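Pasting two entries for a bug report.
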Amino acid sequence: MQEPKVNVAILSDTEVEFILYGEYRYKSSDVLFSGNAKAKFVDNKIQLFINNEIYDPVNEILLSPSGSSSDTFLLKNVTIGLQFHWEQKQNQRFTGSLKIITENNKLTVINVVPVEQYLTSVISSEMSATSSVELLKAHAIISRSWLLAQMEKRKSIDKTQNKYVSEIRTEDELIRWYDREDHILYDVCADDHCQRYQGITKIHAHNAEEAVTETTGLTLMYNNQICDARFSKSCGGITETFENVWEEIKHPYLQTFADYKFDPDGYSTNLVNENDAIKWIRNSPPAFCNTTDEKILDQVLNNYDRKTKDFYRWKVEYTQEEIANLINEKTGFDFGNIIDLIPVQRGYSGRLIKLQIVGSKKTLTVGKELEIRKILSTSHLYSSAFIIEKENIKYNIPQKFILIGAGWGHGVGLCQIGAAVMGEIGYHFDEILLHYFRGAEIKKIY
């Protein structure tokens, strides 16, 4: 197998501006382009403007570098942290080719780049330059594995022409998960929905480059298949299984276990039972990701992440008016007053897979974990591993809801903060990987 190229969607808008630094070829033309450029969505096609020249509308545009390693392009106003509490816009710079397609009545800008170049940026974006080399090597391997698995999944969907289904809706239930439903025309996106990728906008830390170079082609495998290697910020002390977060597929290497050297005394580590979940979430059991060490947290949390101070255990409070308005707005239904939030099904980590929302006008069961997080927050709750308290109940209507939670993210696969702790206390990259992906092997495939 040779190193493949990946198609990464960077932004989507009706008009995009960019600057070509170096010389780029459009189509098979011998003319090389550079400088300021713009593309507009016009009558379901793409109209290109470069240096005051206007080109005929087309269905797709590919601008390829002339061959110099110094050729780069800058995209203006790229949104990062989409719909998260740190959402902001950046100008971002990239190597490789610039591709523009039409999608959902907008333009989608795609960077076509070799996998290892992509990974160097991902590791620099997801991790800090202060990270231990062992953590960076581990993350390079899971990021490579996840990417290659997604590329294979896209090919499989294209080949069978099956529509990817990620929603089950009835009158009483809305069960939705978020994975490949938006990514049919490219391999991955560049934001937290996939992996953070910011091109060469950030200076690549030398140890990130070293980690990618020293692990080139190394991939997590299970039964000779590339592992769909997932990761999140903090599992909250217990990891979750794949099928409880995404489609009903069991991956033996994405299972549940306590994120520590041993199971903590006095606790169940299977939190499907409500009382066990309550005990676990109300307390702070030992775990690799249970840390307040600023040196370690700086390895994983970028400046906009650091707005989050509490992630191993956290609390959110809503008044009746706040939670009713939030749920009505997010679901599009009029629930009236919110009478109760009832856990229906929990995963092994205590994450809610199904939650029943009981209103004075409507009752609905929602899931899976990210849908619950979206409905109960203006952006996303840190996780769906939470318990519910109600206060000041008047005429059967609580005037306050308190959500007490654990962890940050879906909790499947590698726990980034836990892995950072492991790297800091002396674990090697292979030990970190085989802690989180049990039964998997590390193999070089190119």
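Entry 2 (this is the one that rendered wrong in the viewer):
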Amino acid sequence: MIRCLALAALAALVLASAGCERASRFGLKDEAIITERVPDPVYEELFPYYAELCAVSQWRSHSKGTGGVPGHAVMYLKGACKDETAPWPRLRRCRRAAADPHDVEHGAGISVNRWLRNVNWLAFPGRDLFYAGNVRPGERLTQERADATVRDAVAAGVLHGVELHDYPAAEGEHDPDNFLLHHALATDFALQYGRSVFCARMPLAEGMLVEAMEFLNALNDEYAGGEADYQWSGLHDNCVHTLRNALAAASVWSPTSVRVIKLRQLFNLAIPANEFVNLARLGAEGPIDDYEEIHRDPAQREALLEFDWLPTRHGALVKTLPVHPDNEIFDTTFRLFVLQSPLRRGQTQAAVRLASDRRFVELEANLRHFAGVYERVLRERDEDGFGIASLRGDPYRRARRRYYEYVERQRAEVERMLARISGS
């Protein structure tokens, strides 16, 4: 009986994912969904630390066939850099606060690969290698360019200290270049070579970045220094679990277990595109104006009290990157895949809605939106007479007061940022 239920649930999940291939089938009339949408350059000056949780679509190659339907999930951390002195992939704090996204000390990309054995994730230095694969705008993506990008990754030491499971390869070709070219390119790095990229960007407090880094480092240390090998599992321990739990360590949201029994896991699948939408919706539309709901959420309550931070906030934006258009290797047709259960429909529509709304893709519109949100919260506080009500037995008086003080600081910060944009 249990097996039948599990198979039925899995079949429903697969059916729910059908038909998610082409932009036209979702009514994607706005070219902003399909073309590149990145935050304004001044964003880098205003936000020194952030995380980008990205869902990347299925790839299709003229010569290599087709990748998995659910796509893949990756994460980029601004302010965390690949530690080139470590014996295996680890992160360190970047040596400078880089406002130039092309600076290799800007941050690092994180990706989980199913063939890793003695570590859980790989680190790729800098945005250029991670997203664009060092291809310049207008440059043609050829096999020669891809081979050169693989050599760049090898020179950066992305596989230094990494041991792999026996992965599919021609006889005698188990070497770093072969693995990166056939099993990591356009999946773990050089994402735009063959995939559409959708990212939810979330500004972080400095302490939160440190917590996420420490979680990721401890995870790789555990496998590299322990007796157990990493065993990738699509159900229990895939790319999404690692990234979600790194953000959970930073108090962005709750963690997800990698030890849930199979039947329960079928109803709680970690799917790349769904997790991107979850973070984007949390940043754009979470309960910033409802203190009671914030207080009931353990992660948000801890984030407010520990880091003076809440996830629904200004600067939380959606970013979209297309497949590199001038491309000899991969099919450049736009794709967005969302695998969702029948009980959680609407993820694709939510992604389209957020990526079409200027408030959640453009910095100035986003700041003005949250300026209004913060102003409304403070106005309602004054109209409700919180000060008098708190004297009559409010059980969360101190915490509520701290919440309103936080909102006041965010309103002031938004005003400073808008003045900075106006001045530039």
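Dev reply: Rendering is fixed now. As a check, the viewer should reflect this: Strands lie at 50-56, 60-61, 65-66, 72-78, 80-82, 91-93, 107-111, 122-125, 197-203, 317-321.
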